[in-house]
Amino acid sequence: RAPALKIGAFEIRNPVVHLSTDTHGIEAGPLDGNIGGSILREFTCIYDLPHRLLYLEPNAWYGKPELTDNSGLVIDSRGKSPRVLFVYPGSPAARAGIVAGDELKDSNERDLTSDQWHDLLDAAPGSNVCVTVMHQTRVARKCFVLKSYL
Fold it and tell me: How far apart are CA 131 and CA 20, in angstroms?
């Protein structure tokens, strides 16, 4: 977490950030950064396309704590079975043995919607989560306790 992010006159306290030292690839481009949905949710965004301007108006989310995933999983939940894109080292999911490339289902081997996955993984620290993990040809049930690790 960074101490703060200033955008114009606004300050976001303790945002989760990702900093790259890549010298090639998508994260080595000429951009200064990418503000994701967790920051933009705090504002009503007004786009002035002809003038290439973006206006931000604080909304009901402004200043509220950022929603954080307490599992350590970064998943692509657009398909039928979500695929793990990245697992944060030292996170609950990493300690449970979940790795990038794994496919997930809930503990009863059901597919969940993207919103259901977020509800499951954004639950309060201390919540127990069990998922079915398909790793290549193996299927296993993995359980872990959600924890605030950032």
Answer: 30
Report the 10 Å Cβ neighbour count for 38. Answer: 14
Q: How confident is the model at residue 75 (pLDDT cuts 50, 70, 90)?
A: confident
- Average pLDDT estimate for 91-115: 88
Query: Of 80, 122, 83, 120, whose CA–CA distance to 99 is shortest?
Result: 83
The pTM of the whole model exceeds 0.85: no
Strands 43-48, 138-145: pairing kind: unpaired
Contact 42, 64 (CB under 8 A): yes
Token pair listed for 119? 């509800």
Radius of gyration of the chain (CA): 18
pLDDT tens for residues 19-64? 777 787 767 777 766 777 778 888 999 999 999 999 999 998 898 7
Q: How many C-beta atoms surround the C-beta of residue 42 within 10 A?
A: 20
Structure tokens at 15: 């945002």
d(CA 96, CA 119): 19
Taking the C-alpha atoms of residue 141 and residue 108, their distance in angstroms, rounded to an integer, is: 9
What b/e sequence results for 9-19 when a residue is b if at least 16 CB atoms lie within 10 Å of its CB, and e otherwise? eeebeebeeee
